[in-house]
Amino acid sequence: MSNARYAAGMRSYRDLCGIARALDVVGERWALLVVRELLLGPKRFADLHRGLPGMSQNVLTQRLRELEDSGVLVRRRALPPAAGLIYELTESGRALEPVLLALGRWGSPRPPQADSAEELSPDALVTALRTTFDAGAASSLRGTVQLRLPGDAFVLTVVDGRLEAKRGETDTDAVLMSSVRAVQDLVFDGADLDESVRGGTVSVEGDRELLRQLLTAFDDHRAADH
Q: Which of 8, 47, 157, 219 could cross-link to 43 by cystine, CB 3.0-4.6 Å?
């Protein structure tokens, strides 16, 4: 934390405790959600704003500047064939991942605010899957699933009772093509996979039984209520 940051308007708890010093960096409104949107890889400004539609562009610009000044993220030119500037977590920023996952687990059972959005962002959805994954229910499950959402894709891997996730596309045992809302319905609201396929809200390729087992390997907390 530099004195320049506070001169620019950053507030401090002025408390020696490590928790307070951490909150001096990521305790501002929206800061941790910006980090959440970058956990699975770098993004452009427009992509970040799309994942945080309730955040104004001015506030997003301010949070990005503060997090960059604090060493949580870096701004750099995208590698070809992409163009423009992207934002990416530093090693220090990536170290916040277990903190965010723990917060997600703590917050999942809590009811949402009355005016909360009804649909998660793609990155928030994958984070919700990771925080509500039931290792006991998936102890014998092994395999990979490609999750294809409008404008984004993720690879979900179940191994040794863990759910791992990364952005991108590759060959997998099963493919689920869906909207975010339909995945929420399948995982957290008990929608039937076969009925969803028949109704055209989702499309499936590959090992449907693996996919069916994965979709039921989550806690009863409603991440649609995340």
A: 47
Q: Would the pTM of this model clear 0.90, i.e. be above it?
A: no
For residue 111, the tally of other CB atoms under 10 A from its CB is 8
Q: Provide the number of structural domains found in the chain.
A: 2
First to last CA, the chain: 31
Q: Which residues contact 224 (CB under 8 A, 6 or more apart)?
A: 118, 120, 184, 185, 188, 189
Q: Are strands 174-178 and 143-149 parallel, antiparallel or unpaired?
A: parallel
Residues 149, 63, single domain; the answer is: no
- 10 is in which domain, residue-wise? 3-95
Burial class of residue 114 (count of CB atoms within 10 Å of its CB; 0-12, 13-18, 19+)? exposed
Residue 180 lies in a domain: yes
